[in-house]
Each structure stands twice: as structure tokens, then as C-alpha cells.
Design brief:
The protein is of the alpha+beta class. The protein has helices at about 1-10, 25-30, 35-40, 115-120, 165-170; strands at about 15, 45-60, 75-85, 85-95, 125-135, 140-150, 150-160. Strands 1-5-6-7-4-3-2 form a seven-stranded antiparallel beta sheet, sandwiched between helices. β5 (about 125-135) and β6 form a beta hairpin. The chain is globular, with a radius of gyration of 15 Å.
């Protein structure tokens, strides 16, 4: 499941927010400016993180993601599955240029099972350059370039079938 979800995440096809495929309830989730962890916590008792892969990768392993980040020789990669009450809701992939990892941003390498959103949204230096919605098969996702103290990182998220985002679609 984890590897399949992460393969799907890397296959997301990016859409403009104005795409007719994107309904208002869907955009409400995909364009969420606040922490997705916090949003998920409104739909369950506990949000947990399962780390699938973490460590440095060479720039040669980046796909089109490299276009969204400054050139660097190595990037910190973190791939996770975010679960609500133990059920996989989101696959996440974070890429951080090595040049971003100085000062307090070194903590990005030591998150362990702590959700990225808890770290990012506790920072007063967090800004977001963009959110781009995407789709693969019947699943939705998004990617954002965020900055901590002006230093970039790229976060890609795929909403898995059990995610509350899809419950909103049925009700909406």
C-alpha cells in the first residue's frame, strides 16, 4: 500500500485551480492554507505518521520536482503515510534542498513520526509560494512550495481513498 500510494503520488497530473474538474468542496480541501494535519484532526481522534523513507537523495533522483526548487547537489527526502485513527488518509513527500537545512531548519531531518504540519505551522517564518492541485486515477492531491525563513521546500500530498476529503465529495 505505502509504495503504491507513493508511486501514485509521483504520477499526479497538475491542474490549474480553475479546472472544471475541481468542485467547490474539493477546492476547499486542496487549497487549504492551514495545516492539513490540523484539518484531519477535526475528523478523527488521533493523527499518526508512518515514515516510509527518509534520507538524502542526489539531485539526479528528482523528477519534475527539481523545477520547483533551487539547484542543489542533495535533497532531504521524507516520504510518509499520514493516518487518521490508524487508517491511511494521505501519502506525503517532502523534498528539502540541502542548502535549506541550516539553522533551525535542521529540525526537518529529525521529525521522526511527528507530522510535518506540526513543525511547519508552529514557525512564525513560514510562507507559501503556491498550492497546485493534481489528480491521478480517481485520487486527488496537491503540491506546495513552502518557505521557512525564506528557504524553500516542496511538499506533495496525495489524498488516499479513505481520506475525509472524499466523504465531503459524497455529501457535497
Amino acid at each position: 500500500m505505502s509504495q503504491d500510494a507513493l508511486a501514485q503520488l509521483r504520477a499526479l497530473h497538475w491542474l490549474p485551480a480553475s479546472s472544471p474538474l475541481l468542485s467547490a468542496p474539493l477546492l476547499d480541501w486542496l487549497m487549504e492554507e492551514d495545516s492539513m494535519t490540523r484539518r484531519f484532526e477535526q475528523h478523527c481522534q488521533q493523527v499518526t505518521v508512518k515514515v516510509v523513507r527518509e534520507g538524502f537523495i542526489p539531485a539526479s533522483e528528482l523528477e519534475d520536482e527539481g523545477q520547483q526548487l533551487p539547484e542543489d547537489e542533495r535533497f532531504w527526502l521524507r516520504e510518509i503515510i499520514l493516518c487518521g485513527d490508524g487508517i491511511p488518509w494521505l501519502a506525503g513527500r517532502t523534498l528539502v534542498p540541502e542548502s535549506t537545512l541550516n539553522g533551525p531548519e535542521q529540525m526537518l531531518q529529525q521529525l521522526g513520526t511527528r507530522p510535518l504540519g506540526r513543525y511547519l505551522f508552529a514557525s512564525s517564518t513560514l510562507t507559501r509560494d503556491f498550492i497546485e492541485p493534481g489528480q491521478v486515477d480517481e485520487l486527488w492531491g496537491r503540491r506546495s512550495r513552502l518557505r521557512l525563513s525564506g528557504k524553500p521546500l516542496l511538499l506533495t500530498e496525495l489524498f488516499l481513498p479513505a481520506s475525509p476529503l472524499y466523504r465531503t465529495q459524497v455529501q457535497g
